[in-house]
Each structure stands twice: as structure tokens, then as C-alpha cells.
Amino acid sequence: MSQATMIVSNFLILTLIFNSACTNKSSGGSERTKRSSSPSDQPTEQGKQEEAPETGSPSQTAFPGQFKLATWQGPVALEQSVSAAADLAYVFFDSSDHALALWTQFGEEDDSDKRNFWSNSYSGSEWEGAKVIQADDIGSIVYSAAKFVREPGGNILAIWPGEQGMLASLYIEGTWSNPENIGPSSGVVGDKFSFEAVATANGIFYVIWAGIEAGDAKIWANRYEEGTWGTANMLPKSGHLDGMTPRIKLDQNDVPMAVWMNTEEEGGKTIWFNQYNTQAKTWSEAEHIQNKDWGSASGPPDLSFDSLNRPVAIWSEYHSGVLKVHVSSFINSNWVPATPLDIGDATAATKAKIYHDPKGNGIILWTEFDGNSYKLWANRLDAQKNVWEPAILLHQGAADSNQDHEFFFDKEGNGIALWGKSQNSQYEIWGVRFDGSWVDPELISNSGKDSYNPFLSFDSKGNAIIVWAERASEEGTFDIWSNRLKRALNQ
Description:
Strands 3, 4, 31, 32, 33, 34 and 35 form a 7-stranded antiparallel β-sheet that branches. The model is unreliable at 1-31 and 37-65 (pLDDT under 50). The longest helix is centred in the first third of the chain and has 4 residues, at 66-69. The protein has 1 helix and 42 strands. It is mainly beta.
């Protein structure tokens, strides 16, 4: 029998170790494939000091059952245009639980080469109507849309890669600033995996991106604090040949940390990590997470933090000729050797992402391909019991259904996994809720409509709004749609 393995040290996880796994069927309701989880039979020396925990049932949330009874209110169009294309929408709640949806949109007809910022506001009962909030052309965009990040004070940062550098604009007190180049004059790698931003609790923005320098992509970073951008810096050792797919996350103390993938001069791709020194206001020396002799990485990597605020990195890497998901934890000032998840008979496991809720419970999502179809798997760490629960199959799709997936937690540890399901050569947005156990998948977007790039936010009561881009015509125009999840006992 194959097994999923975890090594334990001191009070919580020493590292995440996954070995082979088996499948079985869950009881009751619709059947769902699981892979069993059990302690390691070959613990490390530190791990031998304690018995590895046994698999147990998930812990209850603060509102048991309530999240499962929440209902989707149905798709609502936020913007519809005959000739303009909208993409990559975001939604944020303020302290009054009012929502603001933001997206980038092409101009219409004669202004079709221009891109502007649009928004729509939700007051708690209905959407007020789409409107332009940045009427001037925001500049040439290498990738089709901007990304938005909101800090708790209400200010919003928009970033997008232009032909000559990373551009940024800030929404402060109802007004967008003029676009500003926050990096060197070099170009930016143009895809949604090449740039990211985060915001701290006290309103500092950190931005990371892959920019071209002397023909190669390097990882750059900048910060915005008290009305001023700093000087863009190339992260140390970030570009041996090409640095790509950077991810930036904040730990529980709002310290930025980043992971990315490098192409090495000797060949092959490796995974790197860097931490920002908030006292010195500089990035530290980069660390090599993955030894390039172990195999060739195939990003993008991802990063999260466990209940002890220790970084946990995840990425795809070839292992004995098979592309597997690898996981490594930062323990006692060192990255422990990465270990692969078991993927059964699959030939490739990709698009691995890791998330932790405020209580330190973890979720890993990844996609497997068995030569015929793609499968979306999830694995959950119960931090209280120190147990990796059985990996569970969330979705099995067609051979062309390898679209992105995401997971979003609320403040109580409930969450929703989202992905694009291939249906008659089109993608629908589907989701699975989790509130201590997984429920059956449900359609969230319009049936039979090509939909992409879902983004979701929770309000303070645990209600949620999701936004996405939906194809409106064969010519490639897209509209912005939304759906609202209403909790059973809340408005």
C-alpha cells in the first residue's frame, strides 16, 4: 500500500514528507477518491524522538455546518460591452462589508488599443453599475491586465508590466495617481506569473517582478511606504540566466518573503528563496531551496507559513523521470531536503499551490495528468492534531482541462477551492467548499460560458463574492461577472 508521510519535530511539523499513496472511496453521499495518510516508516533522527501522529478527523470550525448551508445567489453581470474586452477582475471588502470590484478593460472602437481601470460597487444589496475610474490610457501593457492589491486602510495598488518597465498607480482617497515606472527601464516578462504585490497591515506595499536585464530575466523588487516608492533592487542571485515566476507572501509578522525559479548556467532550473529585512530595509542573500542535482524544477513555486510562522515552499520537479510536486520546510534556520508527493500512476503533477488559514491549518492543491485526463487533488494539514489528512480528488477533467486553480480562506478557516472545468471546449468556474470536510463540487459561473481567472473575497460575516471574466463573443471580448455566497445565518 502506498502512503502519505509526515515527519514531526518538537511541537509541530519538521517537514512535509509524502510517500506513495493508495486510493479508497469515502462513505456516504457521492463517492470521492482518497489517498490514505499514515506515519513515516523511515523518520529522520529528530523525527525518531516522537511518534508520528495518526490520521484523524478534521477539527471543527467556529460555525460548524453553517458554511455548508450557504447558498450561491446566481451569476450577475458587472460589466457587458459589445466591443470592449475586460479581464482579470478583483474584489475587496471594506470595514462596512461593502465590496469594490476592479478590472482592466480595453477601450471601445477607436480606442481599442487603450486600457483603463473600471469598477463596480456593492453596497450590501445590489451592484451600483460599472464605471471608469481611470479614464486616461494607463499605458501599454505587456500582459493583458493589471493586478490589484488593497491594504486595510482602503488604499489600492494597481501594477502591470509595460514595455519599458513595471508600472504602478495608487488609489488614495478616491483618486488614482498617474502611472509610474517603479523599476529600471528594462522590460518586464509579460504573463500573470511574472509580477505580484502584497500589502501589510500598516499600509506598506511590496512588489516583485521578473524584468529583462542584458537579455536575461532577473527578479526585481520595490516597496511603497508613506507616499514614496523606494529604489528597485535586483534580488541577490536572482538571475543566473533567467529568473522567473516569482511569488511574494507576508508571514504572520508582515515580513515579506519570496520564492522564484532560476535557469542555471549549467542547465536545469532551481528554486530560490529570499527574505526582506524590515530593519535594514533590504533583501537578504538568496538561499537555494532545491539542489539542482536532484532534478529539474518546473515552476511556478509557491510559498506559505505554518502555525509556527515557518516558511513552507512547494514546486514541481522531475523525479526519476516523472514530474512530481515537491515540498520543503524551513526548520532551525535551514531548508530541509524536499520530498515529493505521491501521484500514483500520473505522469505529471503541476501547478502546485499551498495555503494556510489563520490557525495554521494548511491546504495543498495540485493538478495531475495520467496521459488521458487532468485531476485536481487537495491535501490538508490539521495543525491542532498535527496530521496530514488523506489526499482527496476534487475533480477529474478532460485532457484539455488543466486550467489554474485557487483556494481562499475566511477568518474562521473555512474555504473554497476554485478551478476551471472544461465543458464542451469551454471552461466553467467550479468550486468545492471546505468547513471541516469537503462538499461536492458546484457550478458557480454561467453554464456553458467560457470563464476565466476567478478571484474571491470574504466579508467579516463569512459571506463571499467571486468575480471572473466571461467570454462574450468569438472575437475575444470578455465581460466581468460575479456571484455571491450568502451564509445561512447572516445577511
